[in-house]
Write a structure and sequence with these properties.
By secondary structure, the chain is an all-alpha fold. It contains twelve helices and no strands. The protein has helices spanning 2-25, 32-55, 66-83, 89-110, 117-134, 143-162, 169-191, 198-226, 228-234, 237-250, 256-273, 276-280. It is globular. This is DMT family transporter. It is found in: Membrane.
């Protein structure tokens, strides 16, 4: 029961990032780049503090995967915030989640891992869901926000692939956040910072310090007890939670296209992630 509650809290934190970002950027409380920058700074401070508290020092975790991790994290943060100028909370989370899984699948092919037929089928179904939600007409998305969230998903997928061999994931995450600061902040200066209001600043800090920094730390604590398959399935709840949060807090009620696309994306990921015995067990 304790593990279930910790996992549920972590999934709420992940979904909260989408709701907080949309809440701040959508109505114009803060600019997208400013939100990403403040979120990054707050997350870096919290993660570095956690590492210093637990490790009594901020030791360098090594260079393996560091450049890819930092660049992937930077692309995720910027693409995520820019996308929420035009996507609602649930749709953004669904596109992000789908692209992360597609990127992880491409990483497996690049590494020449053995990919069973079921995983190919699952990836194809998930891609079909993304194509449905991006299709023009009706509730179809504008190309720009969709492309930004797709970039964020690729960035987070690369970040996840780069961190698979980390011996100290918490320290590696803290360093990735710290090293991303000199990348993200200059881009913000080039784009031109606007003056955010107090609501925008507060939402960005909460997203960085709580739902990102503490949320990621909690995820790394429960991940070894879940295993890869259960971890992937647990994350299926994030787009749905984000959609419910957007409906409750932002009055963004998802339409039929969202739920059809969700069924395809989440069903495809479940098919690709679950072990065969779990799928056939009665």
């Amino acid at each position: 029961m304790r593990l279930f509650l910790l996992v549920a809290l972590t999934m709420l934190a992940f979904a909260g990032n989408s709701v907080l970002n949309r809440w701040a950027v959508g109505p114009g409380h803060i600019g997208a780049v400013e939100f990403a920058s403040l979120r990054l700074l707050a997350g870096a401070v919290v993660l570095a503090t956690l590492v210093l508290w637990h490790r009594q020092g901020l030791a360098w975790p090594g260079r393996q995967g560091r450049l890819a991790g930092v660049l992937g994290l930077s692309a995720y943060l910027l693409g995520f915030s820019l996308a929420y100028r035009g996507l609602d909370a649930g749709t953004g989370a669904l596109v992000l989640f789908g692209m992360v899984q597609v990127t992880m699948f491409a990483g497996a092919l690049w590494s020449r891992e053995a990919v069973p037929l079921r995983r190919w089928v699952g990836a194809g179904v998930a891609l079909g869901g993304l194509a449905l939600i991006a299709a023009p007409g009706g509730a179809g998305l504008a190309l720009g926000p969709f492309a930004m969230m797709a970039l964020a998903g690729v960035g987070w997928g690369i970040y996840s692939l780069a961190g698979r061999g980390a011996t100290d994931p918490l320290a590696a995450t803290a360093w990735n956040f710290l090293l991303a600061v000199p990348i993200v902040l200059p881009l913000g200066l080039v784009a031109g910072f606007a003056r955010p209001d107090a609501t925008g600043v507060w939402l960005a800090v909460v997203s960085g310090a709580v739902t990102s920094g503490l949320g990621y730390a909690l995820w790394y604590a429960v991940l070894p007890r879940l295993g890869a398959a259960r971890a992937a399935v647990a994350q299926l709840s994030v787009p749905v939670l984000a959609a419910l949060g957007g409906a409750a807090l932002l009055a963004e009620v998802p339409g039929l296209r969202f739920w059809l696309a969700s069924g395809l994306v989440l069903g495809g990921v479940a098919l690709a992630s679950l072990p065969y015995r779990s799928l056939t067990r009665r």
